Amino acid sequence: MCGIVGSIGRSDDTVDVLMDGLRSLEYRGYDSTGIALGPKLQVLRKSGELDALTEVVNANEPTGTYGIGHTRWSTHGPPTDRNAHPHTDENGRVAVVHNGIIENYAELKSELEAQGVTFSSDTDTEVVPHLIAQRLADGVDAETAFHETVDRLDGSYAIAAIIDGEETIYAARQGSPLVVGVGDTCTYLASDVPAFVEHTRDVIYLEDGQRVRADADGYTVFDDDREPVEVSIETVSYTAEETGKSGYDHYMLKEIHEQPTALRQCFSGRADALEGTISLEEVDEIPQPDAVQFVACGTSYHAALYGASILRETGVPAEAYLASEYALSPPPLSLGTLVVGITQSGETADTLAALRDAQSRGVTTLALTNTVNSTAARECDHAVYIRAGPEIGVAATKTFSSQLVGCNLLAEELVDGQRDLRPLIESLRGLPDDVQSILDSSAAESLVDDYADSDAYFFIGRGTNVAVALEGALKCKEISYEHAEGFPAGELKHGPLALVTPDTPVFAVVIGDDERAQKTLGNIKEVQARGAPVIAVTDGESAADEIADETLMIPETSERAAPVLANVQLQLFSYHLADELGRPIDKPRNLAKSVTVE
Ligand code: AGP
Predict the structure, then answer these.
(1) pLDDT in the model for residue 573
(2) Residues sharing a CB contact under 8 Å with residue 473, sequence separation 6 or more, in sequence order
(3) 2 is a catalytic site residue
(4) Handedness of CA 502, 504, 509, 515 (dihedral sign)
(5) Residue 111: beta bridge partners?
(6) Confidence (pLDDT) at 593
(7) At what angle do helices 127-137 and 142-151 cross, to 10 degrees?
(8) What's the Rg (C-alpha) of the chain?
(9) Do residues 551 and 538 make contact, with C-beta atoms less than 8 angstroms apart?
């Protein structure tokens, strides 16, 4: 998983275009960065974040009319200068950037080494420039050399290559995202649209197996038989401003504050409050499934837990599975089962593998995703978009909230019946204002002073709020690097209670005043008896706010909508804790936004 970018057809600002493109792709990895420029091939690369490469660029002042760039999340080889992309052949004639994993690289490397080629990195990628260079040395033209090399690769890749003196970029996609930006006089290539959206919003989403030749006169897309293919150009709806920080210190904070808009967009036009009906036209021909299996990872898995829980409430058997486990030990399914992949990016390799496994067993698949035309959206039988807008911060925030609303829309569309949905619709429609009121008044930041020195942070909830507890803990550990765990509240006494001390604050999500809430109050008392401070995240219906040491209030709403609100309070706590601790919030160590390796 990495980000790649390319630009051709501009005269004097290619370096800026590539560097700006890499800046917007840093969410895909930030272990090292690099660029290669032509027609006189120059390669500059550096371990560390983009600022390190900026210093190298400023010192060398490279120029070029076209080029490629890369930001790396290490898979093969540590994050060192020698493993930074672009990689070249021994003579520095070919430069290549790559996102993905070349599975047969060891075999190709042995073959090349047996022929006397010396490798200068530990990466799988380096076989590519050597293979291209070999074919060039054999007298084959550049385009054929590229195609023949790509034909030899197994695995997943988005690759871009330039060759000294050839005013062309060659690129190929197989299993890793690659989009082409179509400008008036320039062509761009990137792992994701934000890399060039300030220059053009006209985009071609390449299919697996497709390849591209781009030069100053435009571009041609080929299939894997090297035949030119017709492609459609789509215009993305978002602008460069929407992918910037808009004055916030971090993308994460901006995206937390964008939740009212994201939720409005997700819900808009999909429910009729007067009639009390919900309709998702993307899936309205799907009959009520016998069962639903959700597959997802990380935050999206927490949304899947929530989705499965609300579907079960409507009487449909539903389970959430970690996508990374699903294909390896697939659960039984009948042909009437619907498998739903929840994935913000639509590119998570584990989730794609699980969906492909389900498809291979003949069932209907559906992607609930934020990314239009993502691999999940294209490969599944159906796609429902959560319409949250671009999310750049590695920590998922607004997409999680929108996934929860998306699960409600999906559940109500899938389940046949004549229930009056007006109360649910009312509460979902009220979410943007309710979230805004939390953003305007949250006490989460004020808790940080008292709790920033804690040994660990625990999060508990019951029912759909188990997903909130797990997500609260994931967010906390992901961006603050502090130990955090989430538990179903009833599980505490079966083990985790041993960890509870006066230095481990417990966040308890208590919504309403039903039996679950009452039992959670009991759990609060259990941890308080061990000296742990308790922060209740509550709507004030139960006595939670009276019992707890601190309270994060949420507006009263339906049981389905409340988890969205409770989660916003926990997002804010984690954000401010991480900020207090000086963490690199948008780019937590070892992580990347889009995890395209299994
Ligand atoms: C969320 O904060 C994480 N960065 C991560 O768990 C993420 O949700 C997971 O990798 C799944 O990503 P996806 O939704 O794009 O499939």
Answers:
(1) 98
(2) 457, 458, 459, 484, 485, 486
(3) yes
(4) negative
(5) none
(6) 82
(7) 130
(8) 25
(9) yes
Quote the mean pLDDT of the chain: 94
Closest C-alpha to ligand 1, atom 16 = 343
Which residue in the list 2, 186, 266, 407 is annotated as catalytic? 2
Q: What is the pLDDT of residue 574?
A: 98
570 neighbors 554 (Cβ within 8 angstroms): no
The better pLDDT of the pair 383, 283 is held by 383
Phi-psi region of 495 (alpha: psi -120 to 50; beta: other; left: phi over 0): left
DSSP string covering 378-397? HHSSEEEE-------SSS--
350 CA: nearest ligand 1 atom: 16
The pLDDT, as a whole number, for residue 317 is 96
Give the pLDDT band of residue 265 (cuts 50, 70, 90): confident
64 Cα distance to chain centroid: 32
- Nearest atom, ligand 1, residue 371 CA: 15
Do residues 263 and 432 touch, judged by C-beta distance below 8 A?
A: yes
Per-residue confidence (pLDDT) for residue 1, from 0 to 100: 64
Q: How many helices (H) and strands (E) does the chain have?
A: 18, 26
| Measured CA distances, 549 to 21, 298, 508, 519, 528 (Å) | 47, 30, 11, 18, 9
Whether 593 is a known active-site residue: answer yes
Cα 467 to chain centroid, rounded: 18
Mean pLDDT, residues 557-577 taken together: 98
pTM confidence score:
0.80
**Residues whose CB falls within 8 Å of the CB of residue 253, separated by 6 or more in sequence, listed in order:** 575, 585
Beta bridge mates, 487: 460
Please report which confidence band the pLDDT of residue 135 belongs to, taking 50, 70 and 90 as the band edges: very high
- C-alpha 208/C-alpha 374 separation (Å) is 11
What's the gap between Cα 155 and its chain centre? 21
> Looking at ligand 1, which residue's alpha carbon is closest to its atom 9?
298
Q: What is the mean pLDDT of residues 12-21?
A: 95
The token duo for 236 is: 């993305």
In tens, the pLDDT along 248-258 reads 999 999 999 99
**Is the Cβ–Cβ distance between 35 and 51 less than 8 Å?**
no
What are residue 45's phi and psi, to 5 degrees?
-155, 155
Does 299 contact ligand 1 (Cβ within 6 A)? yes
Query: Six-digit token pair at 53?
Result: 């490469």
**Region of residue 274 (left: phi > 0; alpha: psi -120 to 50; beta: else):** alpha
Distance CA 34, CA 21 (A): 12
Q: Considering Cα of 499, then 502, then 507, then 510, what sign does the dihedral take?
A: positive
Decide whether any atom of ligand 1 lies within 6 Å of the 74 Cβ: no
Is the pLDDT confidence value at 416 over 80?
no
Helix (H, G, I), strand (E, B) or coil at 213: strand
- Take atom 6 of ligand 1 and give the residue whose Cα is closest: 298
